[in-house]
Amino acid sequence: MSNAFKKAALGAALALSVAAQAQAADVTLRMSHFFPSVSAQHKEIFQAWADQVKEASQGRIDVQIYPGATLSKPPAQYDAVVNGIADMTATIQAYTANRFPLTQLVELPGVVKSAEQGSCVVQSLYEEGLLDSEYKDTHPLFMFTHGQGHFHMKEKTINEPSDLANLRIRRPSAVVAKLLEGLNAAPVGMPAPDSYQSLQRGVIDGVTLPWEGAKVFRLNELTTTHTEVGGLYSLAFTMTMNKRVYDGLPDDLKKVIDDASGMTWSKKAGEVFDALDKAGREDALAAGQTIVTIEGGAQNPAWKPVLDEATESYIQELEDKGLPARKVYARTLELSDQCQ
Questions:
Q1: How confident is residue 23, by pLDDT bands cut at 50, 70 and 90?
Q2: I want to staple 167 with a disulfide (CB 3.0 to 4.6 A). Which of 77, 172, 205, 266 is the partner?
Q3: Residue-wise burial string across 185-208, b where 16 or more C-beta atoms lie within 10 A, e elsewhere
Q4: Is the Cα dihedral 24, 27, 30, 31 positive or negative?
Q5: InterPro entries in the record, alphabetically (predicted)?
Q6: How far is CA 259 from the centre of its chain?
Q7: Span 23-46, mean pLDDT?
């Protein structure tokens, strides 16, 4: 056999091998999320999840991730999964207004103490069936929360509620908007990725975000002062999948997805967010920025009456709509103490 023929045969074999590998996946899942591709969330949660699924399925499931809201904008990501534009997403329920009112009870003051603890709370609520009515149109894999949200301001230092009067503050959800309105601030709704440009242009005076968000979306570059009101609020997230896509999987591949679902991944996500909270706070300290920590957090006498009023108002609104808000909220508080 000539050298030329051997080289040609080797080249053909390699080409066939590459082609076989490229065709190995039985299922390709398109996943959308809004975090930057360089973020720890992308690498340590979503890519890590995709890697586990690929390995466990022996390459039969391939997950193509579209970070940075490249497949769909943040407020549209849940509907993108419902409508089949994406096969799955990791998104904030509050970005889809009025769709997850019972899930958003975990946003209320005093519920979330850390991302891992909050993730346990919301995942437990889901596993106990208390949130079933809100997820009939997708197949949730796991729920999680970020850590405690704080105030991050461009200029003005917030020491007490009156310091917020008339300030334009980015709010992530209707629940947080209600809290801000009670504090006489002017809430401005926007997804987290839009905060940098809005703060830079002076559209807003500050943001409500956890330390993780301040780091991941580079807001520590623009803010100079931060106020921690422990337990002010948090946000729930869901990693969820198109129902038809999940139902169409063969049983063995459904098991792969099922094994990458539930509390284990909920807590993993929480751990990543908690680590980022620590790093974000350390960045602000290293930059010499001002950090005010309110003694007693949401239980502080200057803050508690307003936050309690906003909490009661939200719960009563849901009750007036016929939703079992008090029952779910009572269980949420029990879980908040249990998930330590």
A1: low
A2: 205
A3: bbbbbbbbbbbeebbeeeebbbbb
A4: negative
A5: DctP_fam, TRAP_DctP_sf
A6: 21
A7: 93
Strand-pairing partners, residue 322, are: none
Distance CA 200, CA 219 (A): 9
pLDDT at site 97? 85
- State whether residue 221 is helix, strand or coil: helix
Q: Which of 294, 95, 310 is nearest to 181 (CA)?
A: 310
- Going from N- to C-terminal start, the domains of the chain cover 150-233+277-338
DSSP state of 83: T
**121, 128, 229, 234 from 340: Cα distances, Å:** 10, 18, 20, 16
Q: Residue 124: count other Cβ atoms within 10 Å of its Cβ.
A: 19
Long-range contacts of 306-309 (CB under 8 A, 24+ apart): 306/161, 306/179, 306/182, 306/183, 307/109, 307/110, 307/179, 307/182, 307/232, 308/109, 309/182
Residue 140: name the closest of 76, 236, 72, 70 by CA. Answer: 236
Q: What percent of the chain has pLDDT over 90?
A: 88
DSSP 257-274: HHHT-SHHHHHHHHHHHH
- The one-letter amino acid code at 161 reads P
Beta strands in 147-275 (DSSP E): 150-153, 168-171, 186-189, 206-209, 225-228, 236-242
Q: CA triplet 328, 333, 336: central angle to 5 degrees?
A: 120
SS3 170: strand
Q: Which residue has the tokens 């009112």?
A: 101
Q: pTM for the full model?
A: 0.89
The per-residue pLDDT of the chain, averaged, comes to: 92
Q: How many CB atoms lie within 10 A of CB 318?
A: 18
In this predicted model, which residue has the larger pLDDT, 4 or 52?
Answer: 52
- Determine which of 170-174, 271-275, 279-283 has the lowest per-residue pLDDT on average: 170-174
**Strands lying side by side in the sheet with 138-145:** 61-66, 27-33, 88-92, 236-242, 138-145
What's the pLDDT band for 5 if we cut at 50, 70, 90?
very low
> What is the dotted CATH code of the domain comprising 150-233+277-338?
3.40.190.170
